[in-house]
Specification:
The complex is a heterodimer. Chain A is mainly α. Chain A contains eleven helices and three strands. In chain A, helix 3 packs antiparallel against helix 4, helix 3 runs parallel beside helix 6 and helix 9 packs across helix 10. Chain B is mostly helical. Chain B has 22 helices and five strands. In chain B, helix 12 runs antiparallel to helix 13. The longest helix of chain B is centred in the C-terminal third of the chain and has 29 residues. In chain B, 34% of the residues are buried. The chains are: A mainly alpha, B mainly alpha. Strand 1 of chain A pairs parallel with strand 4 of chain B.
Chain lengths: 197, 424
């Protein structure tokens, strides 16, 4: 089993590609009839799916892992725990699962990168979904202590009301490109031509 | 024995150019019967022929070699041979013996299932599909076999990648039934409900003289996915569905139709009670998981309905209307719906209120323009294809004879030489 491509992706932090690389490799190895289950890097494979926010694929992968591997490799189980909480949308528990395990050297970078990405994603969700939210809940969602959470959101422009421990959300203004270019004119001409014939 | 050696020499010699291969094909067709009768001697012969260069010859020998029932041990040895052939065979050559290649692939699928490792067959079958197809719009007879292996090995993503291709050419209409049914199941597994509905709709409305079991099972799933995705279901099939389907499908899917009726009442307790009483039926059809998804989708649709009546609503009121346990539960539901883009709202924890908003999309961004552009391009291509098909059909002899028979003897225009009205 040639894990060269996978190792490269891990080293260059191209984490978004890991799921595809693993899927592709698994099908190839299976087609050759090799019994790969005991040596397969299930942890990395699961985390790859989780990083790409493809929890469906992570679930199916978990179902296909033989129980002998599940029993002998606690890291695989720990990686799945993250996926499981993402599946049930237990937002706070995801953070607990991330920090509650001593990850091996190989996957530390991947887990850390995912944790950062997840916190950012949670923050964006909170910004778009809440107009006010309690500090306690925000801290749970962001996986930080209440003080850290308060500092984090203050930096992003939110308001903190200390007595009630309520945060007022500032809507994130997302700037979207609105410029048009001349090639659009060509396309519009094509459409009109098509419609008249 | 001598004839077999002769055959091998001819295969090795005549696999060079296109004319040679056509000549070889004729020889092979004539030799087919004798190949089948000497199947025991064939394994030695296989070693002398190269699957990559002499694909056509190898195919004929392989097909004769693998015909007949096999045991599990035999399957174990055959699977790698078949996989190797599929991976390195020459696509041009094997397309000449289309049916033989299909038989070999179907046997490969059967053997892979016999040794209980469907995952082994996924990658070779994908290769087989790509080699047999003339274009990516071509549906071959082995497409459904590939999807079946994807389903059994839970390799949904790769199945989905093949499903993304639009199909315009079908080898055999019956392939379409299984392809769309399995395809629908794969989309359900990846929660692509809209695409699943499209595929299942194709099964249900496909031309059929008599109801078949695939259409019945597809209809059951169609009802369930319709409820999950749209929150409603209508029993009337479109006009272009076959009369057999329109008359009979409902009769085989009674529990599901009743589930849809109960769903439309909007009452979670009633729905859950109905599911409990009929649990066994749904379980036997292996649809229980999907039915559970239907039940949990009701909260979502009930909340969505609220947005049409209210501008703001308290979390407590949402919980009461939708029959959730507590305002916190309601808050979590609303949050999840916001995350999935199913609703536009902001939650105000301080007052315990939710404010429903309009879709902020203004359709002005470059990204949206690209999206609309590509949709227009797709429809233009489709429109051109339809025009081409229409033209082709209008000079099809069968069509013309039918239209000719039904035409009236004298057209109205034959009598009228003077226009009745003068436009001013």
């Amino acid at each position: 089993m040639d894990f060269g491509e996978l190792k490269e992706a891990l080293a260059s932090q191209a984490y978004a590609q890991i799921a595809d690389i693993c899927d592709h490799l698994m099908l190839q190895v299976a087609a050759e009839g090799v019994a790969f289950q005991e040596e397969w890097p299930y942890t990395i494979h699961l985390l790859g799916h989780i990083y790409a926010d493809d929890i469906n694929s992570a679930r199916f992968l978990w179902k296909s892992i033989p129980s002998s591997v599940k029993e002998s490799q606690p890291e695989v189980v720990a990686a799945w725990k993250i996926g499981q909480h993402l599946w049930t949308r237990d937002y706070a528990a995801v953070h607990e699962a991330i920090h509650g395990f001593d990850w091996s050297q190989e996957v530390k970078g991947l887990v850390a990168s995912f944790a950062e990405q997840y916190t950012k994603r949670m923050f964006r969700l909170l910004s778009s979904a809440y107009s006010t939210i309690s500090l306690q809940d925000a801290a749970l969602f962001l996986g930080m202590s209440e003080d850290d959470a308060a500092n984090y959101v203050l930096q992003q422009g939110w308001d903190v009301d200390p007595p009630s421990r309520m945060l007022t959300v500032k809507q994130q203004q997302v700037v979207m490109d609105q410029k048009l270019d001349p090639s659009k004119l060509q396309r519009l001409t094509e459409y009109v031509f098509q419609l008249e014939h | 024995m001598g004839s077999l050696e002769n055959l091998v020499t001819q295969i090795q010699g005549l696999s060079g150019s296109i004319e040679d291969i056509a000549h070889l094909h004729n020889i092979l067709r004539l030799a087919d019967e004798s190949l089948h009768s000497e199947s025991s001697a064939l394994s030695a012969v296989l070693d002398q022929v190269d699957p990559a260069k002499h694909s056509l010859g190898y195919l004929y020998i392989l097909e004769a070699f693998t015909s007949g029932p096999v045991s599990k041990e035999q399957a174990l040895t055959l699977v790698p041979i078949l996989a190797r052939f599929i991976n390195c065979c020459d696509a041009q050559q094997i397309r000449l013996a289309h049916d033989k290649f299909v038989s070999v692939c179907k046997r490969f699928k059967d053997h892979v299932l016999l040794i209980e490792s469907p995952l082994r067959g996924v990658s070779p079958m994908r290769t087989a599909v790509r080699k047999l197809q003339t274009t990516s719009e071509h549906l071959t007879t082995i497409h459904p076999d590939f999807l079946l292996l994807c389903l059994l090995s839970k390799s949904y993503k790769i199945g989905l990648s093949v499903l993304e291709d639009d199909i315009f050419d079908v080898d055999q209409p019956r392939d379409l039934f299984l392809y769309c049914y399995y395809g629908g199941m794969i989309c359900i597994g990846q929660k692509r409900f809209r695409k699943a509905l499209e595929l299942l709709h194709n099964v249900v409305t496909a031309p059929m003289n008599v109801i078949n079991a695939i259409a019945v099972e597809a209809y059951k799933k169609y009802i369930l996915v319709s409820l999950i995705h749209y929150g409603q279901f209508s029993t009337s099939l479109p006009k272009y569905a076959s009369s057999a389907a329109q008359r009979n499908l409902k009769n085989f899917c009674q529990p599901y139709i009743e589930l849809a009726t109960t769903y439309s009442s909007g009452k979670i307790a009633e729905l859950e009670a109905y599911v409990l009483t009929n649990r066994e039926k749904f379980d036997n059809d292996k649809n229980l998981g999907l039915v559970k998804q239907v039940v949990s989708s009701m909260y979502k649709h009930n909340i969505q309905r609220l947005t049409q009546t209210y501008l703001t609503l308290s979390l407590q009121d949402i919980a009461n209307t939708v029959q959730l346990g507590s305002p916190k539960e309601a808050e979590m539901h609303v949050l999840q719906m916001i995350q999935d883009g199913e609703i536009f709202a902001t939650i105000n924890q301080k007052d315990g209120m939710v404010r429903f908003l309009e879709d902020p999309e203004q359709y002005k961004t470059c990204q949206m323009i690209e999206h609309i552009d590509s949709s227009i391009q797709r429809i233009m291509t489709l429109s051109r294809k339809l025009n081409a098909m229409d033209e082709q059909m209008s000079f099809d002899p069968l069509y013309l004879t039918k239209v000719g028979r039904e035409r009236q003897r004298f057209d109205f225009d034959d009598f009228d030489t003077v226009p009745q009205k003068f436009p001013i």
